[in-house]
Amino acid sequence: KKDALRWALDVAEHILPVFEAHKPEDPRPRKCIELGREWMIGTVPFKEIRATALASHAAARNATDPLAIAAARACGHAIATIHVQTHSVGAALYGLRACPDELSKRAERAWQINHLEEIKQSLNK
């Protein structure tokens, strides 16, 4: 489960600059990444995980740029992977939606797949 979470957090963090360029004063999506990583090494109450995910989705609703909205949603799904592993797919899909054109979508998709392979290989060592 933690490997899916690690991948989802990395994917969301990879696309997070899209949101932060649009709303640099809003820390809610970044908090998902930070709290998710903290959960991986310790104990964070689930109540806090859920509230942080919902806050990131609220940040998405407060944004006006469609790419920034997608990036914030990627972060919300990434931390929600703690509760339901398949949310990791949501992080990846929203990460792709945060890309401005087909070329960057292809590059992001390749990065996501390659990074997942890196994580899987590190688990086999």
Protein topology:
Elements: H1 2-22, H2 28-41, H3 46-62, H4 66-80, H5 87-97, H6 102-123
Helix pairs in contact: 1-2, 1-4, 1-5, 1-6, 2-3, 2-4, 3-4, 4-5, 5-6
Task: Write a brief caption for the model.
By secondary structure, this protein is mainly alpha-helical.
Structural classification: mainly alpha
Shape: flat
Counting H and I runs of at least 4 residues, what is the number of helices? 6
**DSSP, total strands:** 0
Distance between the termini: 18 Å
Helical residues, percent? over 70%
Strand content: under 5%
Stretches where pLDDT falls below 50 for ≥5 residues?
Answer: none
Mean pLDDT: 96
The H/E string reads: HHHHHH
Gyration radius, rounded: 14 Å
The major sheet is characterized as: none
Summarize this structure as a short list of keywords or feature phrases.
125 residues; mainly alpha
Q: Could you characterize what this model shows?
A:
- With 125 residues, the chain is mostly helical.
- It has helices at residues 2-22, 28-41, 46-62, 66-80, 87-97, 102-123.
- Helix 1 packs antiparallel against helix 2 and helix 2 packs antiparallel against helix 3.
- The longest helix has 22 residues, at 102-123.
- The relative contact order is 0.19.
